[in-house]
């Protein structure tokens, strides 16, 4: 083992050092592109006002130039001028609950078991699969990923295991114990709201086999048959300010503090869930999406979680399987790559022989629940949000028509939304910045001049729709290229704002006006998370009257998860999902009816 470590140590760093640094885009370019992005989503007089503010901002010797210089200086001194700010603003300073608002869920296909024994057996294999993946992380033998032929930053893989978010009174933080001098050797299991520490390595350093893990999980389940325990984990579903306060209260007690630390330090958490409401096969995926996204509410499995934990695998008794992850350390693709590996691993026949050594009993984590903590738990139970998640299949042949599949799907989303609301809205699609060292994401603004022209014309028989569709798809793909090469506008504008704060200067007027607020009010928050496994990730809307749309385009179908808050009268996940299906089908019909020569 140590020989391997010696062999590969440094491989990761060498790769990382070879990656380019994220550039700071030219100021004038961002200002021009920002103005163009506003056109389809705000009124003409607001565009005019912003134009004036931008002129003032860009004046020679003005605030824009000064902030740009500051940013360029920062870029020359740091590995990535943006990432730390981004994690802070987008995640750690964000005070809404991580559940639904920030942490994605991942729904895997239903597994082939339907009782406790099957659940335990599968969970044991899953754990063994994650440990197998972890060996590649530890040995730095993970294959480098590529996007458009360019190697990607692999840092996020080193951030997802043995890490946890810690609530604060005003700002949260993330700790990563993988980098400590004594990296953890245990995972945490939660069953019937009770947490256990499970050591997953033998004394010789080899990981426990699936058979050994199975025995340990059985012991845990037998020690926690009672479901009357206080669901301490439900506290992690709260608004971050409330949880920050409750956290201080909780860890005042020494036992509680040790228990919380054991969860935070653990490699990951595995949730052995109790039954969820029984539903038809048709509704199964939607129900599982709810289970993965938020546990179904306090009466079901929401207390069977520690939502601050970066990575939680979830296995139900009925074959339900998936994950939930805390977003601050990583985007979906590395999580999905890990899960693809685990699913593949669980399908292999068990070959490894288990050493015949008795294993210590997994340790139950105790919590002393004072009346104050009990009150916090009751409050957390009442404030759980509900979402309606809709998952279904679509058909997709844009490649055959020489169109980017992602752009095609995004235009279907634009069309679906326009048909429901008769206007275009600010739309967010995440674009990977992993071509750059420590890169995270920028925004692809899917609502463009070209998309607006396309959706407005689509239901008008007199218009040349195919040309408009082609232009819209192309415009989206070129925005994507611009975003993944570090030339999009949103993170640059954020950077200019942060630079102003850093230098104690006033925030530029153009970043305080109504148009900017509207531009950031993403009623459509979307993301593509592709995978080998036939699964779908899901996340909640980012504004109260918005939608969260995650999709996984497979060769012959597309998995969608659409969410909206039930509490909002203006939105309906089921209606948008149906509108997306209609839009995709109508766009396909349009393409099929148009002679190829015309395209
Ligand atoms: N004709 C034929 N084929 C085309 C085409 C065209 N005009 N344009 C693209 N394609 C092909 C591509 O070559 C690619 O082929 P492959 O399946 O063999 O790899 C495939 O279609 C998919 O391309 P496309 O649909 O354009 O999307 P993409 O894979 O380039 O992804 C993004 C686009 C924006 C999703 C990607 O760049 C990205 O940033 N992903 C990360 C997003 C993220 O982080 N999400 C998680 C947030 S939690």
From TrEMBL:
Superkingdom of this protein's organism: Eukaryota
Please list the residues that bind (R)-carnitine: 428, 430, 441
Q: Where mainly found?
A: endoplasmic reticulum
Question: What keyword terms does UniProt attach to this protein?
Answer: Acetylation, Acyltransferase, Endoplasmic reticulum, Fatty acid metabolism, Lipid metabolism, Membrane, Mitochondrion, Mitochondrion inner membrane, Peroxisome, Signal, Transferase, Transport
Recorded hits in InterPro entries, A to Z, give: Carn_acyl_trans, CAT-like_dom_sf, Cho/carn_acyl_trans, Cho/carn_acyl_trans_2
The record's Gene Ontology biological-process terms are: carnitine metabolic process, CoA-linked; fatty acid metabolic process
UniProt GO cellular component terms: endoplasmic reticulum; mitochondrial inner membrane; peroxisome
Does this entry carry the keyword Membrane? Answer: yes
Give the residue range of the signal peptide.
1-16
Q: Which residues form the Choline/carnitine acyltransferase domain?
A: 22-580
Q: Which reaction does it catalyse?
A: 2-methylbutanoyl-CoA + (R)-carnitine = O-2-methylbutanoyl-(R)-carnitine + CoA; acetoacetyl-CoA + (R)-carnitine = O-3-oxobutanoyl-(R)-carnitine + CoA; decanoyl-CoA + (R)-carnitine = O-decanoyl-(R)-carnitine + CoA; 2-methylpropanoyl-CoA + (R)-carnitine = O-isobutanoyl-(R)-carnitine + CoA
Q: Which residues bind CoA?
A: 395, 399-406, 432, 477, 528
The EC class name is: transferase
Q: Which GO terms describe its molecular function?
A: carnitine O-acetyltransferase activity; carnitine O-octanoyltransferase activity
Subunit: Monomer.
The free-text function statement in the UniProt record for this protein reads: Catalyzes the reversible transfer of acyl groups from carnitine to coenzyme A (CoA) and regulates the acyl-CoA/CoA ratio. Also plays a crucial role in the transport of fatty acids for beta-oxidation. Responsible for the synthesis of short- and branched-chain acylcarnitines. Active towards some branched-chain amino acid oxidation pathway (BCAAO) intermediates. Trans-2-enoyl-CoAs and 2-methylacyl-CoAs are poor substrates.
Return the protein name.
Answer: Carnitine O-acetyltransferase
